[in-house]
Amino acid sequence: MATPSPAERPWALVTGASAGIGDAFARELAARGHGLVLVARRRERLDALASELATAHGVQTLVVVADLARPEAPREILEATTRAGVHVDVLVNNAGYGVPGSFLSPPWEHHRDFIQVLMTAACELCQLYLPAMRARGRGTIINVASLAGIMPGSAGHTLYAASKAFAIRFSQSLALENQSHGVQVTAVCPGFTYSEFHDVTGARALVSRMPAWMWMQAADVARQGLDAAARGKIVFVPGRVNRVMAFIGKHLPDRLAMTLMKRQSKRFRVSD
């Protein structure tokens, strides 16, 4: 029997695949039989993950080293998959981080790069890969948002909640535009998740004081997120505790919700 070409296999592209939730999505997708396009800045980690997934699951992998803070990166990623003959069936926009401190504490360049990575690059990747998905009549886009995009904003990490709220609304609009074309769009909104995120932002000592029942494993977030997309969910909050928090955040009066967030944000956000 002839071996299927790369274009005939289901492929998934995961940004921020070198750690945390992105790594978990890559592992779950490989276990489900998808070839993987692994995108991040750290080649050593990507190469190690690609080798592990190929050995464990017999799937093909393509490593693309890219810094999404560079405006040219999304198109370079498309060019790399096109050269390899890869048709992306699942796009997971996961790359992200936080900028600690208040809005005025870091220089503007830090905020500019943050917006480029979490908002602009994610939108551009959707626009680049959507036409082929629509032409084939199938595809899935998962935008990794956050419970922070549903809750009121907090002091510190000023643009984080705003960027995740954007991801949720963007996903909703994109889902409505593409449902009739066979493309599913889902915003996955995890809460506190064990990953390197809080180490990078310098908040590990703070968040380590949070009770264990508030935390989820990245593997559970990825598995539940993919299952939710398969069920046609447009906005999905993984974990019962997070869903309760999202319900409360949506239904509390704004003034009370902001007061509570003001009191609690110092427990998990690094401010000045």
Description:
The structure is a single chain. The strands form 2 sheets. Strands 3-2-1-4-5-6-9 form a 7-stranded parallel beta sheet, sandwiched between helices. It has one domain: 3-Layer(aba) Sandwich (Rossmann fold), CATH 3.40.50. It contains 10 helices and 9 strands. It has helices spanning 20-31, 43-57, 73-83, 108-136, 160-178, 197-200, 204-207, 218-230, 240-251, 254-264; strands spanning 11-15, 35-40, 61-65, 88-93, 139-144, 183-188, 193-194, 216-217, 235-236. Helix 3 packs parallel to helix 4. Helix content is 48%, strand content 15%. The N and C termini lie far apart (63 Å). The longest helix has 29 residues, at 108-136. By secondary structure, it is an alpha/beta fold. Helix 4 links the parallel strand 4 (88-93) and strand 5 (139-144).
